[in-house]
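Researcher: I'd like a structural prediction for the single chain below. Treat it as a standalone chain; there are no partners to consider.
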Amino acid sequence: MKYSHTIFTIILAIMITGCKDETKVETISLDPTELTIAIGEERQIELTINPLSATKYNTKFWSSSDKNVATVDNKGNVTGIYAGTCTITATVGDKKAKCTVTVKTPTYKIQMDNAIIFDNGFDETTGTNIRILRLYEKGLTIDSTGEASGNGMIMNLHLFSPTTTDTLATGLYQIDESGTEFTIKPGNLVTSDEGTYATGSFLGEYSDYGISVLFAVKGNVRISKENEIFSIQCSLEGEKDEHMDIQWQGKPTIFKTDSAIEITELTYKSLETEEIATDSKTKHVKVRFDCTEYKLNVLFRVPLSAHDGIPDGQYKSDKSDNSFTISAEESELLNGSVTTKIKQIAMKVANGNFEGSFTDFNGRIFAIKKHK
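Model: Treating it as a single chain, here is the predicted structure.
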C-alpha cells in the first residue's frame, strides 16, 4: 500500500505538468534595462519571453514614453532622437517590461566661415547699442535685409554693446535678461500676426526643409580684436544643457539699419581733475577733458578711501550718491559758447585712461577716448 501511494503521486505530478498552458506568458524581461545612446544612434533591446512556446501565441507591442527623446520599432530597435530620458516598454500578453533610455546631450563645435553685423543703433530703453551678429557657414548666403538662403549652420547673437564708435565693442558678453552693457539676449520663440519666429540668440541649421533652432539660454561670448581682425569665441548652453562651442575669426561685413544713429567721436589730449566736495559717502571729483573743439566736464563720485584722482573701475550715471557713479546733471559738453546738457553717461577708467560714451537730450550719441 505504501508503494502504491508513491506511484500515484508521481503520476499526478506528470499529469499536472502535462496540462501546463504553453500559450500563456508567465514572465518577460528586457536586456538591457538601462541604455544610453547618442542622437541618431540605434540599438536593439533583447526581449525574452517565458515560456518560449508562448511567443507564437502572443503579439509583442513596443512603445516609447517620449518619442521626442527616442523611438522604438516592432523589433525593439531604439533610435535616439534628442537629449533627455524616456521609458521603452515591451508588452506581451498581460506582462510588461521596461528599459530606461537616456539620449546624451549633444555638443556642437563649429568653426564658422563668415560673419555679418547688423548695426541697429542706439536703444534708449537699455542705453546700449544693439548689434545683431551672425556667424555662418559658407553654404549659406545672407543679404543686407537679413534673409538667409542655402544650407548650413548659423549662430545668431543679439548683443547689447556699450556705446562706442567701434562697430563691435570688444569684451566678454554674458547671456542675461537685463539688457545692460556686455549682455546677450537669450533665445526665444515669438508668435505674432506675421507668424512664429526665433529671436534673441540661437544656433540654427538651414536646409531645404526650413530652419531648426537651438536657443542659447546660458553662457558667454568673448570678442577680441587685433589689427582690424576680430576673434569671436562662443561658449553657450541650450535649454537641455546642449553645448555650443562656436568660433570665428576675420573681418565682418557690416550693415546699418534705418534706426542706426551716427556717433560723434571725441578724443582728449589732456585732462584735469579737481576735488570739489566730500560728503559722508563719497568724494566728488570733476574731470575736465580737453577735446580740442569740445570741452567735456564730468562729475565722478569716488570712494572716500581714494587718495588721488579717479580709481579704476566702471562708472555710470546715477542719481544716487554711491561710489563709482557719475552725476549726469552736473556734467556738460562745451563747444565754444554752446553748452550741451548730458542725459546719461558711462565711462571705464583703467590705468589713468578714460573711455566711454554719453547721450544728450536730443538723442545724439558721443564717444570719448584718449587720443593716440
